[in-house]
Amino acid sequence: DNASCIKRTRHRIGKAIENKAAHITILVLTLCDIILVMLQIGASLLHLDETEHEHWVLALFGHLSLAIISVFMLEILLKIFAFGPRYFWIGTPHWILHLVDAIIVLTSFLLEIFLKGAEQELSSLLIVFRLWRVVKLTGTVAIEVSEHDQAHVALLEVRVKELEQELKESYLKIQRLEGF
């Protein structure tokens, strides 16, 4: 059945996007993107784009940054496919973080593609948007820590129930022994 195949595919993609390896990959790419943006800002402020070699290096940074933002764009599209548009709306955990991130990624992606030449000087707006990734990075780390803590609490709750059961059994044994 075609509908069930699509549903399974959406579920698999959702699991792949939300697993720990995917989160770590996004964190690493975010860090790389932040470093590239900082290098571009530094080079622009220090006017290091005046020679052919320096211009080539900055162009490479720009292409790498575009590749990374393209991966982020793909991540957003996969989330829309896997979870639906409601993933970015009120009622979903961390919805505001997801929505703002999607808007920033889309805006950054479009500006990166359409701003060329002298217009690229206007990309200081783009840089401000891209620094949103610092907030995203912090939010992603916070979510990971929260999920880890929740899993740890769940394990502890199970262990407490096991220990309570052992304690009850021990009390029963003591009562039987005292009865003899």
UniProtKB/TrEMBL annotation:
**UniProt subcellular location:** Cell membrane
Q: What is this protein called?
A: Voltage-gated hydrogen channel 1
Source organism, top-level taxon = Eukaryota
Gene Ontology CC terms: monoatomic ion channel complex; plasma membrane
The way it spans or sits in the membrane comes to:
Multi-pass membrane protein
* Keyword presence, Ion transport: yes
Indicate whether Membrane appears among the record's keywords.
yes
Q: What Pfam families is this protein classified in?
A: Ion_trans (PF00520)
What sections of the sequence does the record tag as coiled-coil?
Answer: 153-180
This entry's Gene Ontology molecular function terms read: voltage-gated proton channel activity
Q: Which InterPro entries does the annotation name?
A: Hvcn1, Ion_trans_dom, Volt_channel_dom_sf
Cited Gene3D superfamilies: Voltage-gated potassium channels. Chain C (1.20.120.350)
Give the Ion transport domain ranges: 21-137
Q: Which UniProt keywords apply?
A: Cell membrane, Coiled coil, Ion channel, Ion transport, Membrane, Transmembrane, Transmembrane helix, Transport, Voltage-gated channel
Q: Membrane spanning segments where?
A: 21-43, 55-83, 95-115
